[in-house]
Design the sequence.
């Protein structure tokens, strides 16, 4: 079976996460081989947390799980794209997407919707 | 001005590239600070090629430039999302998107359109 080349990124590959229903890019996270296999096995997006150095089932704390609807792999086999059904907010700040700030000449604008107060989710 | 934190990724951050017109994710590339500033200055997506170890104006060989329409930055400030107007194919294999292969249980399907023969573009 076609599998990402984890060696290229020293064991980790970036996974782009896109909303299956409307194409919005929600976040980018990293996967090691264990996270990759777990994602395939469970159908729930699972990553490797670089800050916590541990396997991270997205939503295990917040309840904001990602059900994987489609996986595509890039030409170099060192990046994957997950199309997911996102429950709640993808971003730990409470915004729907982690990419909630637009940079234009000299200023920053908020372009995503804040769905939840993170203090209500991460206790 | 809000700028990505290049230090976190040892000088490089991932840039997700999305088609401005239809939301299709086209590719992922890397930027160092020079590439970031060049992109802002010129409005043409410019990356750092990890394989060639040099600044890479996307399209300089193929003619398949990317005109940047919007830049958003993620919560951790270590990933950017570019919405671009893509001329021709984003992928060096000739496909519109680098993510042209869908992985399903045990098999791989082609899900993007091959626009050009790479031999006609990279001479």
Sequence:
């Amino acid at each position: 079976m076609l599998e990402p080349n984890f060696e290229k990124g020293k064991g980790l590959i970036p996974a782009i996460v896109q909303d299956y229903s409307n194409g919005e890019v929600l976040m980018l996270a990293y996967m090691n081989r264990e996270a990759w296999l777990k994602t395939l096995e469970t159908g729930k997006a699972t990553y490797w947390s670089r800050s916590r150095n541990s396997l991270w089932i997205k939503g295990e704390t917040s309840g904001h799980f990602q059900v994987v609807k489609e996986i595509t792999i890039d030409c170099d086999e060192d990046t994957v794209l997950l199309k997911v059904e996102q429950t709640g907010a993808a971003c730990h700040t409470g915004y729907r997407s982690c990419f909630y700030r637009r940079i234009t000449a000299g200023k920053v604008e908020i372009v995503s919707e804040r769905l939840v107060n993170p203090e209500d989710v991460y206790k």
